[in-house]
Amino acid sequence: MPDRLFQGRIPRQLRSVDFRLLLAFEALIAERHVSRAAAAVGLSQPAMSHALAKLRQQFHDPLLARTSTGFEPTPKALELIEPVREAIRQVNRLFSAGSTFDPAASSESFAIRMGDMNEVLFLPPLLHELEKQAPNITVTVQHLPPSETVRALEASAIDFAVSALIKHSKSVHSLELAKDRMVCVMRRGHPAAAANRLTTRAFLGLRHLRIVQSAGDVRFVEEALFKNGLQRKVMATTPHWLAASYLVETSDLVTALPESMVRRLNVDGRFAVRPLPVGGAEFSWRLYWHRRFDARPGHRWIRSLFEQIRK
Fold it and tell me: Does the predicted TM-score (pTM) go above 0.85?
């Protein structure tokens, strides 16, 4: 028997779907203004008002509610927006697959998972190249914990991920972007800064700020400590790399940060930086994507940009 999505008749709700309504919905939620949304998708204001009325009927929800400051999306609209955007991306991919890719003419959108630190390291040169070569391509950055990143790649919820030491299946491919290592960072006047090197015992005895993206994130220092049966005094935990740098600058906490980021943050010498006695092995920042997009022209071109900007 042939593989069919629907074994019987196409469901009624799908037969009534107008893809243009999804475009209108995305514009309405993004702009939160009927006239601006109409201009964004090339409709007249009455046509967009009619589309909003149809969407409200389709989803049995107001979608946009008037407030004292203008229109705001309803909880239902916020629940729907990401699936709608993903549907738009997938349809766009379907109709542009196999076509000649012209960066200057393309208006594709790419979703990239990056942490705040990866945004500092890799996003500026990427946007610089896009501005020069592909001014109509848009990039949306998402923050996802490592445990969700691979699932998002496999589900096509994101196009790329920039991260490190992510465990994944053979269906996910990767490209090395930069070598790095973790270093111990503390404020310049920290008592432990008097020593040029930290012993393992001294390091473990300090008060630590731990940086993990999720509860199960045991990369970098966490993994090295676990393998060696060691524990440190964790006083606070944050998922944000850049916030961590501020927190150690204004306290007696120490933390472990990537050396590449510390070089950018420490141009004025505000931090004391020491090698880690444990967890300081070299690792690679990598670009990850699902193999289903290996041959897709737009994806290949974005990957080529990352190859140009890698350290």
Answer: no
